[in-house]
Amino acid sequence: MDAVTLIVFFATMVAVVLPIWPLQILRGRGFREPFLVYIAFLWFLSFFIGGLNFSTSITLGEVAYKFRLSSGVYTVIFAALLFVYIAEGINEARKVIMISIGCQLLLIFTQVFLFNAKALYLPASDWALTNQVLEPRVFNIAVSVMNTIFDLFLAVVLFQFLVNRLRVMPLWINMFIALWLIMMFDSIVYIGLTRPEAFSNNVTGHAIFKTGILLLLVPMLAFFIRRFRRQEDLNLNRGSLDIFKKLENLEKDLERAHAELKAYAQNLEHMVEDRTKEIKAKSETMSRELELATEVQQAMLPASTALDRLQFATLYRPCHEVSGDLYDYAELPDGRIFIFIADISGHGVPSALVGAMCKMSLGSQDFTRTNAGDILKKLSEAMKQVTTNHYLTGVVLLIDPKARTIEFANGGHIPCLLQSGKASFLPLEATGTVIGSFISAPYDFKKIAYPAGTRLILFTDGIVEQKNAAREEFGMPRFESVLAELRNENPALVLSEVYRRVVEFSGTEKFSDDVTLLISDLP
């Protein structure tokens, strides 16, 4: 192969890659369809140039290795998938995977239809090219489709594994390793099943060609990603995805257990003994997994020693095994104190999953360069990456102990309280609407001064909405009355007495909603 052919060959690959950048910019501005159309175009391009056998070859030693242009386009599709995952997360990558699977199935249907319909539309003299492009090779097609579907998902999983385990490794190396291993696996499986008689030569040729293509592609894509990291505050440290995985597996186990219990009830006479054993084993598994989920969620809460200048008395009681409530606090480098409390819609595993995402999002924000309202706004934007039907209410506080000021933003949360005198309460009213993937409203913030000796009471609505046998709520008046009565007592005693009186009022220690209550005297 001469130098001109080689240059043209790889220049063609660069031309195929370059549109990914402007199309991804359009995705960032809300126009996602052109990118997906381009992915579909690449699948059709790969199919037809493969059928036409667009290729070239290079001779190393005495062996000639064949390079197919369709294999290069195929590699570009996988690189584009990984690019979308890195830039936008698993939800958007899943859409690219679904488009790819749909294109594969459509191409199969189109190939079979056109090949069998050629006699109706073309004279026999034109069948040669049609046969070359469209003649179905059923076994090859089946291997290709199944291999591709498996490889698409494996590419994302392998890349995330490398990022989580090799955090000091540059991004482009992790991208190259993930794509190279997937492409080598794809070649070995496909060639081994469809062309075993020429396995050694073909695999070597694929390895050389795809390695060269990836060395061309990956630095370009890594450059794009660095631009996104500067412009969009992109965080690739998704180590907490293992929390999601555990909780997602737990939810699936619970759903499967529910289906099995229903079948058990319908077929009781025929399967009592065997099903009882299976359910007992499943129950033990679920109990262990729920214990693990509870431990994971408890580990996400801040340690009681997280703050030196502020001590909280805390009550945190999920109404199920895991909670939809969340709180966090930390001391910032500039001396201020950050506090967050939230109540996520629903209960149990789905709400805990959203709570884990919130914790991860808060951990990636720079509180010294933003206000309380912007913190809620970024949290709302982050929720779009993992859910489309959950929302939460929450309060962010940035406390400056030296100036004795509080900057706060309340996203639709029940007003938390500042208690200065015995019965003097200042509610931290809402400054914006609830936080969620379907919310786009702005979040304002307020800044207030507080006198020495002020007590801060943060809580979710489970404490005041607990009902008695007559369906009457404990309510804010009773809650404030207890706080006023015990104003001179220490926060731990106040919290214990509030809990006792709510239980006494409702007649039960089983709450109908998750309960969180934090009390502290501000410095």
In a few lines, what is going on in this structure?
By secondary structure, the protein is of the alpha+beta class.
Describe this structure in words.
The protein starts with a helix and ends with a strand. With 523 residues, it is α+β, with helices and mostly antiparallel strands. Strands 4, 5, 6, 7, 10 and 11 form a six-stranded antiparallel sheet that branches. It has a five-stranded antiparallel sheet with strand order 3-13-12-8-9, covered by helices on one side. It is built from 15 helices and 13 strands.
Detail the topology: elements first, then pairings.
Elements: H1 3-17, H2 20-28, H3 33-51, E1 55-60, E2 63-68, H4 69-88, H5 90-121, H6 127-134, H7 138-165, H8 171-194, H9 199-232, H10 241-266, H11 268-300, E3 313-317, E4 325-331, E5 337-344, H12 348-363, H13 372-383, E6 391-400, E7 405-411, E8 416-419, E9 425-428, E10 435-436, E11 446-449, E12 455-459, H14 475-485, H15 491-506, E13 515-521
Helix pairs in contact: 1-4, 2-3, 3-4, 3-5, 4-5, 4-7, 4-9, 5-6, 5-7, 7-8, 8-9, 10-11, 10-12, 12-13
